[in-house]
Write a structure and sequence with these properties.
By secondary structure, the chain is α+β, with helices and mostly antiparallel strands. It has 7 helices and 8 strands. It binds zinc ion.
């Protein structure tokens, strides 16, 4: 039997008004995705309010409710305040949160995925390359969800790929060898620098993206390729993609 009161580490992914003074929160936790209610937090005297800002990493105390569990205490681990003050970083965080939401179900317990999300928000808060943080996050998420793109072996025949490979197939989930490059007419052109970048990001920790200096062209192509693959898997674009693109247009 579950305890009536339990502690959970969480990232706050979405907040919406609920009832007169409450908020409904969408949380990512090591035990999966949770929807909980924070009671009275829209009142000015609420002590909880300052600890449930969007994209905060917190240690929570929750009480089992009849329908939704109730948040009773929150201790901030990392408030990610830089991220929330910067529109570009903020748009990246919305995107990361929505992607997590779309790839998981409430009962999907995943400590590794939660750890990746914590790393992602931490990196979005300070990284000089927030776009590459998102690419790394996408590759980690795809790997942990069972959709790791084929970047070392041809997605059709399994042959070891070399620098000559120049097609990425969103439908087949990876790069095609020169012999199979015509097999999927929907395959996208893949330039050498982007191919090297994707392989690098797939195998490196988040910190390894900091020294990278890349042209906007390479960054843009990496984004387009992974976005096409994600769109294929999710069967549509994410809502936050429009926000991400709008903010980019402002720069
Ligand atoms: Zn092949």
């Amino acid at each position: 039997m579950r305890d009536r009161i339990y502690r959970a580490e969480a990232l706050i992914l979405r907040r919406s008004d609920f009832g007169e003074a409450d908020r409904l929160l969408l949380l990512a936790t090591p035990g999966g995705k949770r929807r909980v209610v924070a009671k009275g937090v829209r009142k000015t005297m609420s002590k909880l309010a300052g600890h449930i800002e969007l994209f905060t990493h917190a240690s929570l105390l929750l009480a089992v409710g009849r329908n939704l569990d109730l948040l009773t205490q929150s201790q901030t681990i990392n408030g990610h305040s830089t991220l929330r003050a910067d529109l570009r970083r903020l748009s990246c965080a919305y995107y990361a949160a929505e992607l997590y939401d779309r790839f998981t179900r409430e009962e999907d317990e995943s400590r590794p995925l939660f750890a990746v999300l914590v790393e992602t928000f931490g990196a979005l808060n300070h990284s000089a390359n927030p776009d590459l943080v998102l690419r790394t996050y996408e590759l980690r998420l795809l790997h942990l969800s069972g959709y790791r793109p084929h970047l070392y072996h041809c997605a059709i025949c399994g042959a070891l790929l070399d620098e000559e490979a120049d097609r990425f197939s969103p439908a087949l989930g990876g790069v095609l060898c020169p012999r199979d490059r015509g097999a999927d007419r929907g395959a996208l052109a893949l330039g050498g620098p982007v191919f090297r970048l994707l392989r690098y990001l797939q195998g490196q920790p988040f910190a390894a993206i900091e020294p990278l200096r890349l042209s906007p062209l390479v960054r843009g192509e990496a984004e387009r390729l992974l976005r096409a693959y994600l769109r294929q898997l999710l069967e549509r674009d994410l809502k936050s993609v429009a926000f991400l693109d709008d903010v980019k247009g402002v720069d």
